[in-house]
Amino acid sequence: MPTSENIDLGAFRLHDQDTGSADVQIALLTHRINQLTEHLKGHRKDHSSRRGLLKLVATRRSLLDYLKRTSQDRYKTVIEKLNLRK
């Protein structure tokens, strides 16, 4: 998983020590998905990375569905901050 070096996780944390909430996990997955997307633009035949990308997208989708089910306001906040809807 990516580290928090490249991402401002403070915007997604529920408290100071928060590293595992759905909000933070979605932010980390989104960062990794963006990295893999850029990688695959230059390496079109890297099918193992493509498979990993699809798994990450499915995991993020599951976390977003969970967040939508449990907390609508947090869901909307995460969607807006990460600009996931076009």
Could you explain how this protein is built, in words?
There is one protein chain. The protein has helices spanning 22-42, 47-70, 72-82. With 86 residues, it is mainly alpha-helical. α1 runs antiparallel to α2 (47-70), α1 (22-42) packs parallel to α3 and α2 runs antiparallel to α3 (72-82). The model has no long low-confidence stretch (mean pLDDT 91).
Fold blueprint:
Elements: H1 22-42, H2 47-70, H3 72-82
Helix pairs in contact: 1-2, 1-3, 2-3
Give the low-confidence spans. Answer: none
What's the CATH class, please?
Answer: Mainly Alpha
Rg: 13 Å
Main pleated sheet: none
What pattern of helices and strands is seen along the backbone? HHH
Number of helical runs?
3
Q: How many domain units?
A: 1
Name the shape in a single word: elongated
Helix content: 55-70%
Mean pLDDT: 91
Task: Return the CATH architecture.
Answer: Orthogonal Bundle
Beta-strand residue fraction: under 5%
Structural class: mainly alpha
Give the termini distance in whole angstroms: 25 Å
Q: Which keywords apply here?
A:
Helix Hairpins; 3 helices; 86 residues; mainly alpha
Can you summarize this structure?
By secondary structure, the protein is mainly α. Helix content is 65%, strand content 0%.
